[in-house]
Amino acid sequence: MKAIVVTDQAAGTAGMTLVERPEPEPAINDVIVQVHASGFVPTEMEWPSTWTDRLGRDRTPSIPGHELAGVVSALGYGTTGLSVGQRVFGLTDWTRDGTLAERVAVEARNLAPLPGDVDFTVGASLPISGLTAWQGLFDHGRLKAGQSVLVHGAAGAVGAMVTQLAHEFGAYVIGTGRAADRQKALDFGAQEFVDLGNDVLEDVGGVDLVFDVIGGDIGKRSAGMVRPGGTLVSVVGPPEARPADGLAIDFVVEADRAQLGEIVRRVRDGRLRTNIGTVATLDDAVAALNPTERATGKTIISVRP
Ligand SMILES: NC(=O)c1ccc[n+]([C@@H]2O[C@H](COP(=O)([O-])OP(=O)(O)OC[C@H]3O[C@@H](n4cnc5c(N)ncnc54)[C@H](OP(=O)(O)O)[C@@H]3O)[C@@H](O)[C@H]2O)c1
């Protein structure tokens, strides 16, 4: 089958190549999915799991991409809950070959049914950003209606989902990002926007929840803005500073079929919009994933147009 592989960590996304790879074999409780569309997170080349397996062994050449929408083409031994021919979407294991390929082996429990009226391209854009937003706001951030949320990178893939879900839940949303992202963040439901290049972040005052996708100095300064009893949620590693009288949490998104169902339900009824930028074929994926200009929105690879 055709797949994108990486072999050299130092080369980053520039080291991606389109090659022929052996067909994936389904393990116990796996399905094989015929990939129709694949999502990719730009920082994947920095994740240890892209290069080594759970025992720390080199697993190159590895196939990146860990979210997909597609059709189940085979079942592994003992697999229940999904059937051949079913449309699915979801998250794949970080330490196994991923979704920038014509087919992938995935544990069935990592996937959810994709309704027939949701495009594969849309389906592939939801798992990582949607689940990260859901888990950060509700499981870890324990958001309550009426609370204020500072959403960094509010026009990005994760931030757009956080902004919309928090807004729907009845929170007051303050988005941040580049100057050019102001209108996009407001359109996704932010009530205020902070241009991190020109405005003073601290002028926002205290907030109940910070959702940090940037880290570094922005993350550190945000800790000081959390009100007593509030929470700083980071998806970019352990926070370098903690709220004086609140919680600091960092987490990595997990597969969750029920939450995927909640997310796709909102996409179907119009409560949630995806944030897709470029859509490219697998043949054009290397160029699309190495943009020469600033990319806005998620790049989706349409593997089976
Ligand atoms: N822990 C987890 O489970 C998990 C899950 C998903 C994602 N992540 C991580 O979360 C981060 C964001 O992912 P994403 O897919 O949402 O990326 P993305 O689509 O690139 O969104 C990030 C947004 O933040 C903006 N931004 C970044 N640094 C900024 C700065 N200093 N000032 C102003 N704006 C800034 C970006 O603008 P520019 O594009 O102009 O920089 C972009 O709009 C990545 O590091 C990713 O690895 C973690």
TrEMBL record:
Residues 12-301 form the Enoyl reductase (ER) domain. Signal peptide: none annotated. SMART domains: PKS_ER (SM00829). GO terms for molecular function: oxidoreductase activity. PANTHER family: ALCOHOL DEHYDROGENASE RELATED (PTHR11695), RETICULON-4-INTERACTING PROTEIN 1, MITOCHONDRIAL (PTHR11695:SF294). Gene3D superfamilies: Medium-chain alcohol dehydrogenases, catalytic domain, NAD(P)-binding Rossmann-like Domain. This is NADP-dependent oxidoreductase. It comes from the Bacteria.
